[in-house]
Design goal:
- There is one protein chain.
- The chain is mostly beta strands.
- The chain has helices spanning 3-9, 30-35, 186-189, 244-248, 252-257, 442-445, 451-461; strands spanning 24-26, 41-44, 51-53, 59-63, 67-72, 80-86, 88-89, 92-93, 99-103, 106-111, 121-126, 134-140, 145-151, 154-161, 166-173, 179-185, 207-209, 212-216, 222-226, 234-239, 263-268, 274-279, 294-298, 306-311, 332-335, 338-342, 348-352, 360-365, 373-380, 384-389, 401-406.
- The chain has one domain: YVTN repeat-like/Quinoprotein amine dehydrogenase (Methylamine Dehydrogenase, Chain H).
- Helices cover 9% and strands 36% of the residues.
- Strand 23 (294-298) and strand 24 (306-311) form a beta hairpin.
- The longest helix is centred in the last third of the chain and has 11 residues, at 451-461.
Length: 467
């Protein structure tokens, strides 16, 4: 069964795109792009999730739920799929893969992103030839891996395990045999959070800049940890949108899906002075009752972080998790004085954050009936960025794809509305599941939630596995 057919038939109302044929669609010619901000190119990638870019800026790597794809983006008008691989650990198919990370010639594929899948772990590939990746090592874990990041020979992994009550950063040396060498735990640092729901203190992701790891711990806040000695990480500081005491009086749905809190992705700029925190959230009838945005903090004095500004999410009529359009913040890239962000069906944006107290929107592109952007990542600095569009949004019929965009100021001509009666706001300013599924990823988690999903996974796993 093709992934597209399965998802359109699934109870979640998803559409895991496309037949096995992959095609590139070139956008409008350059002359037209000068008059309207538009994508440069597009290529269909079945079941696309996270996307990252190699050091040369010419190859993108995408997680695809049962494996990964490599895409040549050297010509942004004509992105081309080079290879697609399923992944095995211990001879068994790794499923629910939503994250990959690359550094140099090494690619790491991690999963599953949600609990209740086997096997669990990471697989390393040599991607010196992106058209012919070669598996080089693997490591089985006892915990699912929602996200990870690779920095040189060190792999930083979000370790969350409900049975052992663990929410920690795990650090591995991947030079040769993969070896665990260090860890840092929120619950060792602030044991009081152990009393809150597991997903309410979940370590969702990790990014590393200049030996500082940014760790978004959902409602517990975002923690900065010194990993210069990866065998002995040390707390630096943290920022938070809510408190442990405030969270004690909040119900499960509001704690997991609604603001305040929901620290989902975080990154530090190359000066190590600015921290951006994206909050993935939906309307829950709590307060505030809206999707999550991105907050900018001055962390030049770690002892006294200062909130500088907020970039609000696009607004729509139904902002709930289960039935509405998703316009909450998702993954982003912080490069110099530019912020490249994704907002699911709310599109992608570029902001000038040279004055973090007054971020300026430079460009915004959206097509809510066709795209749900998972991430935005710089490919060629100053020239292009990429954005992956996912299919894992309930009650949609989207198609997995990779888009390329110009890094320039511009306005989309006649942008599709996000509301039934959307007020005009195109001036460059911003618009004001189950217990064991991770917020934001319940669509892909549902793939194995029932008999049809299990059958899909079995059929996917019975195909030829390319190593």
């Amino acid at each position: 069964m093709e992934r597209r057919a399965f998802l359109r038939a699934s109870a979640a109302g998803l559409s895991l795109a496309g037949a096995t044929t992959i095609s590139a669609v070139q956008a409008a010619p350059a002359a037209a792009r000068q008059a309207s901000y538009e994508p440069l190119g597009r290529v269909t990638v079945e079941a696309a999730a996270e996307a990252v870019v190699g050091d040369d800026g010419e190859t993108a790597y995408l997680a695809t739920t049962t494996g990964f794809a490599t895409v040549d983006v050297s010509d942004p008008a004509d992105p081309t799929v080079l290879a697609e691989h399923d992944v095995e650990i211990g001879g068994e198919s790794l499923r629910n893969i939503l994250d990959v990370s690359v550094d140099g010639d090494r690619l790491v594929v991690a999963g599953p992103a949600n609990p209740d899948y086997e096997p669990m772990g990471v697989r390393c590939y040599d991607v010196s030839d992106p058209a012919d990746p070669t598996a080089v090592d693997e490591y089985a874990t006892t915990f699912h891996i929602h996200n990870c990041t690779l920095e040189g020979d060190l792999l930083f992994v979000a370790e969350n395990e409900s049975e052992t009550d663990t929410n920690a950063l795990a650090i591995f040396d991947v030079d040769g045999e993969i070896t665990r060498i260090g860890s840092w735990s929120l619950l060792d640092h602030e044991p009081g959070w152990r009393d809150r729901p597991f997903l309410g203190r979940y370590l969702h992701d990790v990014s590393v800049q200049d030996n500082i790891a940014a760790l978004p711990y959902w409602n517990a806040g975002t923690y900065l940890v010194d990993v210069s000695d990866p065998t002995d990480p040390e707390y630096i500081t943290h920022v938070a949108d809510t408190t442990l005491e405030a969270q004690r009086g909040i119900g499960y749905e509001d704690a997991v899906y609604g603001l305040p809190g929901n620290d989902h992705y975080a990154a530090i700029d190359d000066t190590v002075d600015l921290l951006a925190v994206g909050r993935e959230a939906w309307a829950t009838d709590g307060e505030p009752d809206r999707p999550g945005g991105i907050d900018l903090y001055d962390v030049s004095d770690p002892a006294a972080p200062v909130h500088r500004s907020s970039i609000d999410p696009p607004r729509t009529d139904d902002e709930s998790h289960g039935g509405g359009r998703w316009t909450t913040s998702h993954n982003f890239d912080l490069r110099g004085d530019r912020l490249f962000s994704s907002w699911y069906q709310g599109g992608v944006k570029i902001h000038d954050i040279s004055d973090p107290s007054d971020p300026e929107r430079l460009a915004w592109w959206r097509d809510p009936d066709e795209t749900g952007f998972w991430t935005a990542r710089v490919a060629d600095p100053g020239e292009t960025f990429i954005a992956s569009s996912t299919e894992a949004i309930p009650n949609t019929a989207l198609e997995g794809a990779l888009y390329t965009f110009p890094i320039e100021r511009g306005e989309q001509a006649d942008p599709p509305p996000l509301r039934d009666a959307e007020p005009s706001n195109e001036s460059g300013t911003d618009d004001t599941a189950s217990d064991d599924a991770i917020p934001g990823f319940t669509g892909f988690a549902a793939l194995a939630g029932g008999a049809a999903g299990l059958e899909w996974c079995r059929r996917r796993g019975n195909g030829n596995v390319q190593d």
